[in-house]
């Protein structure tokens, strides 16, 4: 009834070219709705009566109004009916107000563009179920990139019926700050990113969401920070390039870099600690407890590092140099910057596609991901993809940074903290082949349909290798099922930088109440994953790429 009435008023009014709905108090109704914690029957009845009156009044008002001359200002105000556009007669809320409304007892608010909505009363009737709660206290936009079913006037109409206010965009970056906290100026993050640590901020998506789209929306891309996020400004940004032995360094402003020929690649970035939680189950390690979602895929646009180095004066055939070092704008209390390096051959190889990127998925790189410039070293461990890039040094030595020398290295399962010698292992560069089962996730209940369950996940390999096969079993390897590739990039190895999204339907035993699903991938070099985590365990919990094993319950 409510919807029909609402549709009627909107259509009626639109047909006549004036959007008078604002002045009829529909939002008052929504405010009222927002004060009720239970939408009971009598409330619905009262609401409908009220609505009838409101609609009647509205039409009446329209006829009275029609006789008046409407000012340009007013037309602008009332025509502003794009979903999520600013509505002058509604209150304005800041991001803190929104994120404090994330549970049913406090009411559940979400934002879409500049609109603020109280969707508490919609949750139980949402066709997509409980998933809607992932957006509680945050924006629905990144989810709607994953589930494009929402790009539909019918959905916008439902959404607008829950409108309660506007989002104060100016205030977003201007919340009350405690200047003594080094983390006082962190960017606002989406609530769906589940933090493994808050300061520094490290977070990943629930695995089921991760594989809903081939390209990961920026706001949902895992974040791996070692330090507070620097606040670099495009206007004052400078990148310094030093070629060792050459006195004069060269510097590039952002606009200088943007003038050089640009390139776009689609590349997956993965943290060395992805799937560390599987290793921790076997034996504790030092490191953040990452699940299988410390990985993401984006299109990256920027200028090839090779071109910048050559324009800074580096000679391609000069074999004095062995490494290209990077320094980020994020520093620790002693003033030491985050740093890493890659071998020079990779930096200069035309096929290496190493970029100084300024765009992520078509927009300026968000602060958490390295604004305004980050290095993208496709096929290479996340740690070398230095964010907030401020300095490049061409050298005969590796970076002396902690993260190059004393971290991000692999060791034998029998090496522990009392015996470890970090100088004995090389720094991780290209990552080995990996896969993960994302749907169903560990411990969940899956519906058996026609004696089969559907399993979905990703697979990826470093060094530009492509995934050629993913095998999945539910009987401990007695029978393997080859997965279908739902999405794979067309690029050929050794420039295949993006992950593969796979899916498979597997028959399950009629009597079994639960199963353990295993997945393993094979890459274009026919490298595959190790069977057990026990035998690849290492004290930092990196390179955790054993068969992915997920236990689930079955429902018929
Ligand atoms: C708060 C605003 C939201 C509204 C008004 C809304 C509305 C809807 C509607 C009307 C549909 C059915 C679409 C159709 O079949 O034409 C739908 C489906 C769906 N929604 Fe939402 N939604 C919202 C938020 C979300 C969020 C935040 C998520 C995920 C995190 C989500 C996940 C889904 C899924 C997975 C489906 C598809 C279900 C299926 O395929 O059967 N929705 N939603
Ligand atoms: N300057 C700087 N660059 C950095 C880091 C950092 O803390 N500071 N973290 C690295 C690590 S370990 C990873 S996995 C990736 C994470 O990138 P993302 O946060 O954009 O997902 O950035 C890398 N680049
Ligand atoms: Mo990482």
From TrEMBL:
Pathway: Energy metabolism; sulfur metabolism; Sulfur metabolism. It comes from the Eukaryota. One of its GO terms (biological process) is sulfur compound metabolic process. Its cofactor is Mo-molybdopterin; heme b. This is sulfite oxidase. Its EC number is 1.8.3.1. Pfam families: Cyt-b5, Mo-co_dimer, Oxidored_molyb. SUPFAM superfamilies: Cytochrome b5-like heme/steroid binding domain, E set domains, Oxidoreductase molybdopterin-binding domain.
């Amino acid at each position: 009834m409510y919807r029909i009435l609402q549709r009627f008023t909107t259509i009626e009014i639109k047909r006549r070219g004036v959007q008078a709905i604002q002045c009829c108090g529909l939002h008052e109704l929504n405010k009222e709705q927002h004060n009720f914690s239970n939408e009971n029957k009598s409330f619905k009845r009262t609401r409908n009566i009220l609505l009838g009156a409101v609609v009647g009044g509205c039409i009446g008002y329209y006829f009275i109004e029609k006789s008046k001359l409407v000012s340009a200002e007013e037309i602008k105000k009332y025509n502003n009916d794009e979903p999520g556009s600013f509505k002058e007669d509604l209150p304005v809320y800041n991001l803190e107000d929104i994120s404090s409304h994330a549970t049913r007892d406090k009411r559940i608010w979400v934002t879409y563009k500049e609109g603020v909505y109280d969707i508490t009363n919609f949750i139980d009737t949402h066709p997509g179920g409980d998933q809607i709660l992932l957006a509680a206290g945050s924006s629905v936009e990144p989810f709607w990139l994953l589930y494009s079913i929402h790009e539909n006037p019918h959905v916008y109409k439902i959404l607008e019926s829950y409108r309660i206010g506007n989002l104060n965009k100016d205030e977003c970056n201007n919340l009350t700050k405690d200047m003594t906290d080094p983390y006082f100026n962190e960017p606002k993050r989406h609530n769906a990113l589940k933090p493994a640590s808050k300061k520094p901020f490290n977070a990943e998506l629930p695995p089921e969401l991760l594989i809903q789209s081939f390209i990961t929306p920026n706001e949902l891309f895992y974040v791996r920070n070692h330090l507070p996020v620097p606040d670099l400004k495009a206007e004052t940004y400078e990148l310094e390039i030093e070629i060792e032995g050459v006195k004069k360094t060269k510097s590039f402003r952002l606009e200088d870099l943007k003038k050089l020929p640009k390139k776009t690649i689609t590349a997956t970035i993965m943290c060395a600690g992805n799937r560390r939680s599987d290793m921790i189950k076997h034996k504790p390690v030092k490191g953040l407890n990452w699940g299988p979602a410390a990985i993401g895929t984006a299109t990256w646009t920027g200028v090839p590092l090779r071109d910048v180095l050559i324009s800074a004066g580096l000679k391609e055939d000069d074999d004095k140099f062995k490494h290209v070092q990077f320094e980020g704008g994020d520093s620790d209390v002693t003033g030491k910057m985050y740093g890493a390096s890659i071998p020079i051959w990779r930096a200069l190889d035309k096929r290496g596609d190493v970029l100084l990127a300024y765009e992520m998925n078509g927009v300026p790189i968000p602060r958490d991901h390295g604004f305004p410039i980050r290095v993208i070293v496709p096929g290479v461990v996340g740690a070398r993809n230095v964010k907030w890039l401020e300095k490049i040094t061409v050298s005969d030595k590796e970076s002396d940074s902690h993260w190059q020398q004393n971290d991000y290295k692999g060791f034998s399962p029998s090496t522990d903290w009392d015996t470890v010698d970090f100088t004995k292992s090389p720094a991780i560069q290209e990552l080995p082949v990996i896969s993960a089962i994302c749907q169903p996730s560990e411990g969940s209940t899956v519906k058996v349909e026609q004696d089969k369950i559907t399993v979905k996940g990703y697979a990826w390999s470093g060094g530009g290798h492509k995934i050629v096969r993913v095998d999945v079993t539910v009987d401990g390897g007695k029978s393997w099922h080859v997965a279908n590739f739902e999405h794979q990039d067309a690029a050929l190895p050794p420039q295949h930088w993006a992950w593969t999204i796979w899916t498979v339907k597997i028959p399950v035993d009629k009597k079994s109440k639960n199963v353990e699903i295993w997945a393993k991938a094979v890459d274009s070099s026919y490298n595959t994953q190790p069977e057990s985590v026990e035998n690849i365990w290492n004290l930092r919990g990196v390179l955790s790429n054993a068969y992915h094993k997920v236990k689930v319950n079955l429902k018929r």
